[in-house]
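Appendix B. Worked example

We walk through a single record from start to finish. Start with the input: the chain for LuxR family two component transcriptional regulator, Kribbella pratensis, length 222.
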Amino acid sequence: MEDDVIRVFLVDDQELVRAGFTMLVDSQADMRVVGQAGDGGEALEKIQVTACDVVLMDVRMPRLDGVEATRRLQSLPEAPRVIVLTTFDLDEYAFAAIKAGASGFLLKNTPPADLLNAIRQVHSGDAVVSPSTTRRLLEHFAGALPDEQTERPDLADLTAREREVLVEVARGLSNTEIARLFTLSEATVKTHIGRILAKTGLRDRVALVVLGYETGLVRPTK
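Next comes the structure step. The output line below is what the pipeline stores for this chain.
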């Protein structure tokens, strides 16, 4: 059914790259490309009049880069989820885009099956960046994080257990590992994470990792 189709918008300054992604996405029964743009500015203009669910966003583009475009997209009434595409694994632009509200990042040479799976994951509300990968990004760019503990008011609403779970999420542990650590079921861990997201107003696990570092709950390893 058309209502079940994931609407994908492509943003990349290379037409050949967009053509390749279009063929890949449109080959799937459950998704289709609904629009594309050559830079962030054009993307913002078109997305405001084009209903879409997931945006594949390049970071390095003329006029308006993917980081600022992602940040501005988040101000839209029903902002689509953004997957940042980058050439390098440890890329300061990708880190900045995640902070700007992207649900994750992928390398441009990601295998096609993994890219398609990532689109489905993000559409379902999950993040496509593994906690360990996000942690590596944060540790690599630790200099961009605050030196002093900057406690956010919304953390005060967390229970002691929720704070413990948040710390372990930020450290890169999976739900299975957190469940084993605290002798909980995975379902209970998922419930805790859902409540943490609701209380902090954040969108996904990636944002929780960033929050853990920014608030000083977790410190980058030396």
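Two observations about the output. Strands lie at 6-11, 31-37, 54-58, 81-86, 104-107. The CA atoms of residues 42 and 64 lie 9 Å apart.
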